[in-house]
Amino acid sequence: MQEITNIKRPIGKDELTMRVIFYIAVAIFALICLVPFVLMISSSFMNEKEILTEGYKLIPKKISFNAYEFLFHNSANLISAYRVTITIAVLGTVLGLFFMSMAGYVLCRNDFKYRNQISFFIYFTTLFSGGLIPSYILMVNGLHLKDSIWAMILPGIMSPWSIFLMRNFMKAIPDSLYESAAIDGAGDFYIYWKIFLPLAKPSLATIGLFLTLGYWNEWYNAMLYIQSTYKYPLQYFLQRIVSQANVQLLVQQGLSINTAELPSESIKMATAVVAIGPIILVYPFVQKYFVSGLTVGAVKG
């Protein structure tokens, strides 16, 4: 029986032709998607004069490190911005996954009487919001989070879309697991922590990736609430560097860069390279969970 199951079906000419066409099309599409990324890296090493005269190119005529020299000149503030971004990304992702997975677990339970009413209340927030002014008053006067990193963490800690994704995924977990654990005397939190949470790894990875990307790209709340320079997140810090890339700042910092080679354009690409580098390294480890979490969470329920 084992030998029969191991026999491979021969591939016909038509199927082989379609596979070759499909693989070639996917390879071409992947290369097209890769071109902007390669262009960004190569442009970050271009001479400013070359960019202004010839535009961005995949292969620069002359390698220039002016943009990175300008960017890393004040390395202490850059490291501090990295530290703040990593802190809010880790804390926000962990807390967000914890609270949204608990909300999804509660809403997926059929024995929870008010699950439909609470689900409607959560869905309602996707249609209407209080607006900027009430949010600002709440954060500053109500919670007293002016110039606090928690002002960048709390606004993104709960997402209606992520809660419903978690709920739909947990609905696919058999009720028999809950019932057998309850018969053995396990409480709700034990069932959630020991049974449902380990089985929800794909959805956790999917939501965790979205949360991490959101916190890593944080700049808007920092602009509103953060005043201390050492509390600036990476994206907001880089945005300020780009806006300050002028002759006066170079003179103040004592950098010996030719006026014609001021990195006002190439520094935009250099900041993008510095900002997305860690995310690119993390994504391959959660990719398989990300794809399965999207497909299962979107179909179930």
Automatic annotation (TrEMBL):
Top-level taxon of origin: Bacteria
Residues covered by the ABC transmembrane type-1 domain: 82-286
Membrane-traversing stretches: 20-41, 81-108, 120-137, 149-170, 191-216, 267-286
Primary location: membrane
Cell location: Cell membrane
Record keywords, A-Z: Cell membrane, Membrane, Transmembrane, Transmembrane helix, Transport
InterPro entries linked to this entry: MetI-like, MetI-like_sf
Membrane topology: Multi-pass membrane protein
Name this protein carries in UniProt: Carbohydrate ABC transporter permease
Organism: Clostridium rhizosphaerae
Taxonomic lineage from the root: Bacteria, Bacillati, Bacillota, Clostridia, Eubacteriales
